[in-house]
Amino acid sequence: MGRIIKLSEDVIKKIAAGEVVERPASVVKELIENSIDASATAIYIDVLGGGLKQIKVVDNGIGMTKEDALLSFERYTTSKIKSTEDLYRITTLGFRGEALASIAAVSRLTIITRTKEEKIGTKVIVEGGVLKKVEPIGCKPGTTIIVKDLFFNVPVRRKFLKSPSTEFGHIADIVTKYSFLYLNIHFKLTHNGRLIISSPASKSLIDKVSFIYGNDIALNMINVDEKKERLRVWGVTSKPSISRATRDYIITFVNGRYVANALLYRAIDEAYFTLLPEGRYPITIINIEIPPEDVDVNIHPTKREIRFHNPDIVYNIVKDGIRNCLLREKLQPEISEKQLHAVEAQQIEVRKVKSPKEIIDTTITEKGVQTTLVDIHDFLKVEHMPKFETPWRILGQVANVFIIATDDDSIYIIDQHAAHERIQFEKFCKEYKENRIKSQELLEPYMIDVAPQKIELLKNLLDYLKTFGIDIDYFGGNTFIVRSVPVIIKEIATKDEIKDFIDELLSLEDVKVGRLPKEKEIISMIACKSAIKAGEPLTMEKMRKIIYELFSLTENPFTCPHGRPTVIEIKKKKLYRLFKRS
After folding, report:
1. Domains plus CATH for the chain?
2. Separation in Å, CA 88 to CA 19, 112, 167, 260, 298
3. Are 527 and 430 in contact (CB under 8 A)?
4. Bridge-based pairing state of the strands 186-191 and 42-48
5. Are 87 and 298 in contact (CB under 8 A)?
6. pLDDT per position as a tens digit, 474-524
7. pTM exceeds 0.85
């Protein structure tokens, strides 16, 4: 007997389902796309247990007849295409005829549907791909699909799913993305009976941004609309004054289909070249309208991957479209009165420094306060560090980024942010280890909006963050209140920096899969946000303090917590050689 056998229909269905249905979010994506193709103007998604228990999607689209409802569970049945030629001009989101069949193969699925022309609807129940019941039912026009016990008959697959909060985060991400682009559709998402997203129909994409991300972000978005030959890119993107630490807020569509495409990401990065610092990303939501024959979406069953026939043309219209809109805007951020006073105070402080060789040292004597001038040599002598036995003289700053110092043998270049980050890291590590972190309540609590897909992830971390002196409460919707922060960062970290801290925290791999991040990851992030920034002018006294603390308070003064160097030494002998002196 030969070794090659023909697989059973049951095994074939489960293999096919595995390609389409990776997790609960895959189900939501396929059902939402079917609702959009059915011309729905309202799509309501109700989820229980992160989608592991139940997913219910209700739409008011065109609905199905009894015959169509029964046929929709068969593989490769679709109303979207009829011939091979249609594959090269796809204008709908669905077309492969696999989604419902794949979902039904690995769940207990119920469909309730009715067309507007019919007086009575149809209810169909399928379990594990097997038809169980068909009956008439009274219902509104449209379609309701209920998916229960996903992967109940594929326990190996179910075992690899993440926590309910993580799985729900992926669902919220999908709903968020599609609610942005389809302005005429009211999207609503609930989880365990609680409303998470409500994005009413609107004529403006910026209004949709306000519904999801809040007014602060919406007010700093600009419209993008660029046409070139047969292509058009339209959407919104943020002014450079608003940016994020990750690409999570870049959402790209092609002909209304959400895609994650490296070419589009590179084009957006290039559009912001010199407008955003390295490691910062805009909030961007764009749709590229392109002739369907110029893009191939029939690459993978999930339809996430696409291929452009003329990638250079697409790259250029995205880059130029966003860049041109940015350059037409007033991009310089406005400084508040509070910030202006801070700058003026800093300038006054700088003027108090008389010369690089003199530092004002105040001591308390029996007769009162005595002020004396001491030389930098005396202050910076670090006798317990053999490499720095000789005193340093601070010469000043370069570009408000580097501190320049010298001694008899070398010139030292100190990265002020990296150095201060190392200091803050080791201070906070010690406080955390000794359980003596000091927390300071904010006079005005920060209201922070997070993306809907990250609400549950942040809620899972609230108790853990309290051990680091960060007190955050859930306020409702997608809003959290930051009530207190560690004393070490209170005077330095702004609301935007706290927001960046939360964004970076929720992007950690451990957090994404429902685990608590390592203590040192949290501490290094806090140290980074609390450290003096590159570009900040420093007084001589502040520079002196940074160098003193770097070599007297830290175990490893030569790198920041991320491994970048804090100090570079240039020997005078090398300088002589560079200038061809003997």
Report:
1. 9-201 (3.30.565.10), 207-327 (3.30.230.10), 335-582 (3.30.1540.20)
2. 22, 32, 34, 21, 9
3. no
4. parallel
5. yes
6. 998 889 999 999 887 766 667 888 888 898 899 888 888 888 998 988 999
7. no
